[in-house]
Every structure is written in C-alpha cells, then in structure tokens.
Amino acid sequence: MSWIMAIKLLVVVVALVMFLRRPSLVWGVGLLSVTTAVLFDSFLGAFGREEMLAELGFFFYIISGALFAGATVWVWGLLRPVVETAVPAAPSQQTDEPIPENKSTRGPAFDQQMLYDEIRGRLGREDILDLIFDLGLNENDVMPLDQDANQLVLNVMDRADENGQSGALALAVERILTPPPPENLPRLEKIDSDSPATILRHYLLAHYDLAQLQKIAAALNIDWERLTTGSKQTKVRSLLLYLYRRNQVDDLIAHLRQIAGIE
Questions:
Q1: What's the distance, CA 58 to chain centroid?
Q2: How wide is the angle at C-alpha 225 spanned by C-alphas 221 and 230, nearest 5°?
Q3: 253 near 199, Cβ under 8 Å?
Q4: Contact 154, 81 (CB under 8 A)
Q5: Best label site of 74, 109, 115, 262, fewest CB within 10 Å?
Q6: Rounded to an integer, what distance in angstroms lies between the CA atom of residue 118 and that of residue 121?
Q7: How does pLDDT run across 138-160, given as a tens digit for each residue?
Q8: What CA–CA distance (Å, rounded) separates 249 from 242?
C-alpha cells in the first residue's frame, strides 16, 4: 500500500470516527464526501485514469461538482459556529451590557464546534429551554428577538462562557440526552430548596405524570392554566420557574414529602 493511499484511508477513518462520536448532518456529509472521493479516485486508478475520464466525459464534471459541493458544505458546517461567534451580533440583537475587557477566552474552537453540533443536531427547542433552566440562565437574556434557533444556541454558549459554565454546559447537555433513571436520583428526603434546580426537574419528570402534576399545582394554589401550555416537559419547567420566582420551592418539597408519607 502506497503512502498516498494510506493517507486517503486515514482521512476516511477520521471522518468515520467523528461521525460515530458525534452523529450530525455536517459529519455525515463529510464522511460521504471523502469516502466517495477516495472510491472514485481508486476506481479511476484501477481502470485507467485517462481512458475512464474520456469515457465519463460530461458526467465527470457532474461527479466532481457534487463532491466539491459536499466538501464545501462540510467545511462550512465545521467553521460556521466559529465564524458566527467571532462576528458581533447585529444591532437588533445586541444588548446594552458592556463586554468585559478581560472576558475569558473560549475553549478550543474545535470543542466549541462539537458542542454546537451536539446541541443543534440532537436537542429540540424544549430541550434547549430545559438547558437554559438547568444552567440557571434567564430566558430573556439569551432568547433572540427573531427566535432564530442557531442564534439561541450561540447565545446560550456565550452566556455560559461568560459565567464560567462551559464545563457545566457540556454536562447539562449530556444529562438532557441521557436523563438519569429514577433509581439514580437522590431520595426525596435528601432534596431541599438548596438542591440544584435540575435535580428537582428530573425528579418531577421521573415520578409524576401530567394529572399528578396538576393536582400538585392545585394543592399549592397554582392555577394550572396559567402555566405555559405544552408537554409534560414544558409544564414541569414552567411550574418550577413559577415556584423559584416566588420562593415557594420549600412548599413544593414539603407537599411531595407529604404525598410520599415522609415526615
């Protein structure tokens, strides 16, 4: 095997490994592009490059154009998060908050791009709102005026970076993708108002259905209809936000313990 062929196979293997580690459209296009390019080049070499090019004629340019387009999409997908975070926001999206002169720098651009792909490729809008809740961020601080999903993710990443929560952001993403099973959550008697909000969110999601959550809200004198409408995921987040804003989390925990027969 020549060293050129070894390099080609190495590129394919790297693209395959990255796609398996972080499945996304960007890495899928990259894997398809490099694999097709290597196979096409090997095909031409095996059957006579000049003869095959003459035989293919116009179709050679179509194949080459498709490969070039795929490579362009791949490279742009990898560089886009880095480019967008480097370009200042449009005036309509800028806030009045001054940028600190000694703002901490981001981690490696590659890591940031991987995290961006993970969030955009595998989290839905409700998941991203849960992510904002788990990090203790204010939705109004990160929600773009035009509701653009890409900008929302970038805003969350920027705010987490400013707060020194880059590591917490990556961990929160993984917990949303793979929620802890009920048996791995802290026991109710170990949960209090000082526990991380994400623990309470996971606990409610794991142990109560919508009907039970509505009864809990009624017991706490909360109008269920005033909470954000939507799925169980939305209702749990809305209920907890309501309680945290009014310093009534202790009331919720006390009621849950009462239901469970815990003194």
A1: 42
A2: 125
A3: no
A4: yes
A5: 262
A6: 5
A7: 988 998 887 788 889 999 999 99
A8: 9
In which residue are the tokens 């592009």 written? 33
Burial class of residue 193 (count of CB atoms within 10 Å of its CB; 0-12, 13-18, 19+):
middle
**Ramachandran quadrant class, 204 (left: phi over 0; alpha: psi -120 to 50; beta: rest):** alpha
The C-alpha atoms of residue 48 and residue 45 are separated, in whole angstroms, by 5
Which pLDDT band holds residue 39 (cuts at 50, 70, 90)? confident
Six-digit token string for 225: 């209809």
Tokens of 39: 């196979």
CA pair distance 94, 214, nearest whole angstrom: 39
Three-class secondary structure assignment of 140-172: HHHCCCCCCHHHHHHHHHHHHHHCCCHHHHHHH
The residues, any chain, with a CB within 8 Å of residue 172's CB and separated by 6 or more, are: 131, 134, 135, 198
* DSSP state letter for 93: G
Phi then psi for 30, rounded to 5 degrees? -65, -45
Residue 112 amino acid letter: Q
Q: With the CA atoms of 61, 62, 68 and 72 taken in that order, what torsion angle do they form, in degrees rounded to the nearest 10?
A: 140
